[in-house]
Amino acid sequence: MAASGGPLSGVTVVDLSRILAGPYCTMMMAELGARVIKVETPNSGDDARHYGPFINGKSAYFQSVNRGKESIALNLKDEGDKAILDKLLEKADVIVENFRPGTMEKLGFGWERLHEKFPKLIYVSASGFGHSGPDMYRPAYDMVVQGMGGIMSITGHEGAPPTRIGTSIGDIGSGLYAAIGAMSALVHRGATGEATKVDISMFDCQLALLENAIMRYFVSGTAPGPLGARHPSITPFEAFHTEDGYIIIAAGNDGLFHKMADALGRPGWKTDDRYLTNDLRSQHQEYLKVEIEAVLGTNTTAHWGKIMDDAGVPNGPINNVGQAAEHPQAAARNMIVDVDDPVTGAMKVVGNPIKLTAFEDPNSRVPAPNLDQDRERILKELGL
Amino acid sequence: MAASGGPLSGVTVVDLSRILAGPYCTMMMAELGARVIKVETPNSGDDARHYGPFINGKSAYFQSVNRGKESIALNLKDEGDKAILDKLLEKADVIVENFRPGTMEKLGFGWERLHEKFPKLIYVSASGFGHSGPDMYRPAYDMVVQGMGGIMSITGHEGAPPTRIGTSIGDIGSGLYAAIGAMSALVHRGATGEATKVDISMFDCQLALLENAIMRYFVSGTAPGPLGARHPSITPFEAFHTEDGYIIIAAGNDGLFHKMADALGRPGWKTDDRYLTNDLRSQHQEYLKVEIEAVLGTNTTAHWGKIMDDAGVPNGPINNVGQAAEHPQAAARNMIVDVDDPVTGAMKVVGNPIKLTAFEDPNSRVPAPNLDQDRERILKELGL
């Protein structure tokens, strides 16, 4: 039977992080059952509390990534408050921060001191460029690393203005790698008792996400350009014009290509010398696209979707965010969950994509905390 | 002192996955010290072995995500080979697969049977739409979920053709959540002895990556559109035209906005009623952009980059993949590593963005295996 809580039940995270990269990491940990205690600056708190949209003065941006966490405001330049943080860390398993390198050392909470004082404490840092290298002190936000890290250069259309990835992949990407780092460190600590520091650079994470494009750059010696709406090395694998819009068809191997050719009434493609292998199809991608669109242009996206479905060829429409979020599959998978916040009223946010047989997947979440709302209870727990 | 291996040393992963989502998950696990044994179909192996570019006939695509793994070819419709897989699973910690739902059950390796037979074995599945819901049997590749999951609808420019994210975020995103799921399950097993199934849907993961956009959709009731090269709710936070190209400036809070205004010689913006808060700046984003570009258009990206650096305002150029991969910070962080493959010769691939104090971060990797290359050694280990 599925249990409440999650695989990280019993793990306590002290979270000094702000805005998105660190908070996304700790949100994932909270979703998996960890207790996350946000330590925020007094008065203003996490910067994200001031990012719109707002509902009754409370940031919905903040709500989305901080549901299920606790909050205590501490002035880390005040000796009394520093002592409270020490007490918190004494009982914690993981500390997460996304300050600029050197800030934690200045505050007296650098890895060296913490590791000596709390040898079981795992330290996770997510910074713009990491804790080493010539650019380590360079400040960064999502868009800076999206630009510097190369992903914008391969996203969009040849000759068109630059295109940002519509989601904050600079922050969320590093939040995901930070979560992997934190959990791998928990596994290691479980096996050996040793804690480690996890040093995540948003810039590094952009490179890691590029994976295939970096390989292609080093193989060819040429930086790949933007490819519009197609895959760089699999064909056909792109958005095609239909009579009333677009359909994505992804025929990723010979078998699927043959099914597609038959379903479109063009069995001759299967034996066409230009289309015999994926490599040949990729070399003749533009020509094949014209041939495919000549067929698809005669009917609607829905029509061709049904035909591709029946043929077993991976395909789909281009949904907007509303169509995606309201998709029956999203509902069936509990991917949209409720937050019943006393300030904002009922809100919907995205759920947890990690579905575990051993645990329940609840359809509601505890609201994001107001600044400092858990102070009294936390201090009492610490015996203060 | 940093040790060799990694936090997952001692963890054995049996990897039935193909192409990218599953292999990316197991690549991360291999990078973190796990032993990953690829189980491939005889003769053709993983589909990705046939994706270009090729060097001396070996796929560089395959190399990039399968370095450091082992390979054994097993025909999972053959009783003898099934018995070998059972033997492998007996000693494994994690099994990863990205077949369509139902395939593993048909082969006799579904979660129910495996959990009964190997109660400590963690089962990680990454499929297009997950193991439940009306669309569970729908086939998917990266582009299908990029389209259906909504990210393409917010990436690009108003009125322009659809834009694919330049990297395979449908696959890599789900690979990252799968890795988080696998490691959280290892933490849970370490604490309780219980193994769980991790059910990852590529479509769910796209929704999870949208996070902020989904929240905005439910707050406003309107699906957000593509925003070109700017952030939806932080201003100024976008790519601006300079005399010779673009610069990204991300002034994510009032203090940074004030620094930027001073550095651009426009201190009046700090007290301008339209620009007093991030929310007001976001309401007047188009107007502010014109004002900023009027200044930036008078000089080069490099010139303004230096001025923003000196002022401490997060900024950067838009690098192509080569500029990103050859960046001094990438070298300093060991983000480009060597694979010395006897077939392809020396190749460069992207390194591991998870830097751990407790472990070495080697600058080379073991090549991706040839199909079935580790058969004899693996069979010997199993006593077969």
General description of the model:
The structure is a homodimer of 384-residue chains. Chain A has 2 domains: 12-210 and 331-381, Crotonobetainyl-coa:carnitine coa-transferase, domain 1 (Rossmann fold, 3-Layer(aba) Sandwich); 237-320, formyl-coa transferase, domain 3, CATH 3.30.1540.10. Chain A has 16 helices and 15 strands. Chain A has helices at residues 21-31, 60-66, 79-90, 103-107, 111-117, 142-148, 169-192, 202-210, 212-220, 254-263, 278-283, 285-296, 301-311, 321-325, 328-332, 375-381, and strands spanning 12-15, 35-40, 54-55, 58-59, 70-73, 94-97, 122-127, 197-201, 237-241, 246-250, 315-316, 336-341, 345-350, 355-356, 364-365. The relative contact order of chain A is 0.13. The model of chain A has no long low-confidence stretch (mean pLDDT 96). At the A-B interface, strand 3, helix 2, helix 6, helix 7 and strand 8 of A face strand 3, helix 2, helix 6, helix 7 and strand 8 of B. Chains A, B: It comes from Nisaea acidiphila.
Brief overview:
Two copies of one chain form a homodimer. Chain A has 384 residues and is α/β, with parallel strands linked by helices.
Please render the helix and strand layout as text.
The structure is a homodimer of 384-residue chains.
Chain A: E1 12-15, H1 21-31, E2 35-40, E3 54-55, E4 58-59, H2 60-66, E5 70-73, H3 79-90, E6 94-97, H4 103-107, H5 111-117, E7 122-127, H6 142-148, H7 169-192, E8 197-201, H8 202-210, H9 212-220, E9 237-241, E10 246-250, H10 254-263, H11 278-283, H12 285-296, H13 301-311, E11 315-316, H14 321-325, H15 328-332, E12 336-341, E13 345-350, E14 355-356, E15 364-365, H16 375-381
Parallel strand pairs in A: 1-2, 1-6, 2-5, 6-7, 7-8, 12-15
Antiparallel strand pairs in A: 3-4, 9-10, 10-11, 12-13
